[in-house]
Design brief:
Largest sheet: 2 strands, parallel
Strand order of the largest sheet: 1-2
Oligomer: single chain
Shape: globular
Number of domains: 1
Distance between the termini: 47 Å
Order of helices and strands: HEHEH
Strand content: 5-15%
Number of helices: 3
Radius of gyration: 16 Å
């Protein structure tokens, strides 16, 4: 993403703004971050904190980005094969079944 590192843009959900009640203003400010994410054409955005995750997920839906937003721990657990079926809410169809044990299809 550009800009990045210390010049990156805030998602607009931090500092209590996510729960402030100013939804229209929060989404308007967050458009900067959504535009930045959509410019990458990435299928997913990995968020490091819950506020960013909630805000960016809402931005994706509001502005039609349709990119997935996942917590960092979700990707780590998925790569280790320990992400449970009930922890896949924010995964798109391409990852929902990755490393999921299905006893009905397992060899006996």
């Amino acid at each position: 993403m550009t800009p990045n590192h210390s010049n990156n843009f805030c998602c607009g959900g931090g500092g209590g703004f996510l729960q402030s009640g100013y939804k229209d203003e929060r989404l308007e400010f967050g458009k900067i971050k959504d535009d930045q994410i959509q410019a990458t054409k990435a299928g997913y955005c990995i968020a490091g904190c819950h506020n960013c995750h909630a805000q960016i997920h809402e931005l994706s839906e509001h502005y039609g980005g349709h990119y997935g937003v996942v917590h960092l721990w979700t990707i780590i657990c998925l790569s280790l094969g320990i992400l449970g079926p009930n922890e896949r809410t924010y995964l798109n169809d391409d990852l929902k079944e990755v490393n999921v044990f299905h006893p009905e299809t397992a060899m006996m």
